[in-house]
Fold this protein.
Amino acid sequence: MTKSKETNKWILGATGYVGQLVTHRLFTERTKGNWSGQLITLGQKTIVPWIMERTNFHLFPLSAIPEYLFEKYPPTGIYHCARMAGNSDRARRIAARKGYKANQRFIQLIGDQQPTVPVVYCSGTLMYGNTVHAVDEEAPLRPIAYARAYEYAERPWVLAAEAGELDVRIARPGWILGPDSWFEHFFFKPALATGKVPVYGDGNQLMSLISVEDCAGQLVHLMDHGAPNQSVNLFGFEPIKQKDFAAMVAQCLDANTVYIKASDTEKKYGKTVFEALTSSTPVTTKHLDWRASYVPVYQDLRVLIEATVRRLQANH
């Protein structure tokens, strides 16, 4: 393969929830002159006009990324935010099997074409399971809820990182807070419908939160300032009990909270969602210097919650 000195930053899943923010951050930094080169963005289902117009966008599923892209745009860094999802347990299992094969294939492509390129893979902290005490990156994986299926899909990356044959940096963000996803569906919309912000179970379960902007920022920070095969937990604040988080949301909405019994939560949403909402998943990190060198977008959780709520209110 012909070597190139050009910087080509790839974002897989560039039109997704996290991928859009990674793309935006890299685009903004390029505009500021912090780096030069091409943004090679790849997506499958969602079309985001500004990404199509302002980056080198390619419409390919993860399982069909062609070899010629490596030859035409040799990557100098790859952000993998292209998790295959499903809207039911069965659909997630099917997606996980497809994801496993797609990831195996992509890893083989990297190994054949450019084995030294760093890959930042975006995972999640549900991989650690239900825990009372905050866990760091050395904790064993005990996936629960959505992570039961997703763990299988990302297993090729975990094995590649352990083997050390590629530079794989697995990032595990906590609860990613933004105007979409879990917060909108399980907290904001129920509050709009009932006038009360739900607390699921006893509310003592711990959550490690991070804004979607800082999730993207820390992913970029891991690429730029992390060490080869350094994996990290991503979070923005100290762990908070769900009942205290819900109280902050309620205050912002000028509403009250309401406790939803664990049994009712499982009955309404099913086991997978029940586990996600009622499990305690606090995290910390052993990479203190790396974390301290990152400048966060949000340093105050209350400010983040208020900003998220205002953006959602503007859309409803």
In short: The chain has a mean pLDDT of 95. The chain is about 45% helix and 15% strand. The first strand starts at residue 8 and ends at 12.
